[in-house]
TrEMBL record:
One matching Pfam family: GntR
UniProt keyword terms in alphabetical order: DNA-binding, Transcription, Transcription regulation
Matches recorded under InterPro entries: GntR_C (IPR011711), TF_FadR/GntR_C (IPR008920), Tscrpt_reg_HTH_GntR (IPR000524), WH-like_DNA-bd_sf (IPR036388), WH_DNA-bd_sf (IPR036390)
The HTH gntR-type domain, residue ranges: 7-74
Gene3D superfamilies, sorted: GntR ligand-binding domain-like (1.20.120.530), Winged helix-like DNA-binding domain superfamily/Winged helix DNA-binding domain (1.10.10.10)
Keyword Transcription regulation annotated: yes
Name of the protein this chain belongs to: Transcriptional regulator
NCBIfam families: PRK11534.1
Taxonomic source organism: Halomonas salina
């Protein structure tokens, strides 16, 4: 029997459920009732259990012994640790990229920076958030990709998966603000200049400051929503 349709259902369930958790459809601590999940996604228990198991491994969901699943809690302690870990790793990968990156890497960084700076014509706040964030992620990934280490890139992706719920709070506060976006454009341009100038110390300092900027904004959003 062909298992491909079952695999596709499991992948779909994982993607839909993960997106809804990141966007706060299911808030931290909420019990994920199988009956509600079946109704919302029009899927059977098998694909949903597969998706939930994967999200447990990513620490977005907590398994409760004999009692199902809950959305993992959020906390100011986890926020601080995740962002510091990301900044430490990103700084190391940036340094390696500056040491190892070639002309093709430089060209890709410039291309992704240009594409990000031109996010203008969108039709709704939600579309703006999605388009800007996709290009923003591509820009930062292009910078560190010059490190030429698949294992470091994999570790980076794992941290990114865990931080996405926190990032989404920041995106909602930032992407819909022209002033905040203008500041980000300036930061990105300065970061590209330092990186392509191969100035390791300046680039690492700027990258850390850039990556840590969202923390107080996220903490404020968490407090307003009763999450911290």
């Amino acid at each position: 029997m062909d298992s491909t349709p079952k695999q596709n259902l499991g992948i779909s369930a994982y993607r839909w459920l993960k997106q809804d958790i990141i966007r706060g459809v299911y808030p931290p601590g909420e019990k994920l009732l199988m009956s509600r999940l079946k109704e919302r996604y029009d899927l059977g228990i098998g694909p949903l259990r597969e998706a939930l198991s994967q999200l447990v491994a990513e620490r977005l969901v907590v398994a409760i012994s004999q009692r199902g699943y809950r959305v993992a809690p959020m906390s100011r302690e986890e926020l601080a640790d995740l962002y510091d870990a990301r900044a430490q790793l990103e700084g190391l990968m940036l340094e390696l990229a500056i040491q190892r990156g070639d002309d093709a890497w430089e060209a890709d960084v410039l291309a992704k920076a240009h594409t990000l700076a031109k996010v203008m014509e969108v039709h709704s706040p939600e579309e703006m958030l999605d388009v800007w964030d996709t290009r923003h992620q591509a820009f930062h990934t292009a910078i560190v990709a010059g490190c030429n280490s698949p294992h470091l890139m994999q570790a980076r992706q794992g941290l990114f998966d865990q931080v996405e719920r926190y990032r989404h709070l920041w995106l909602q506060e930032t992407v819909l603000s022209d002033e905040a976006l203008a500041r980000k454009r300036q930061e990105h341009a300065a970061l590209v200049d330092a990186t392509l100038a191969r100035d390791v110390e300046r680039a690492r300092t700027m990258m850390r400051e850039h990556l840590m900027t969202p923390v107080p904004i996220i903490l404020d959003a968490m407090q307003r929503r009763g999450l911290a």
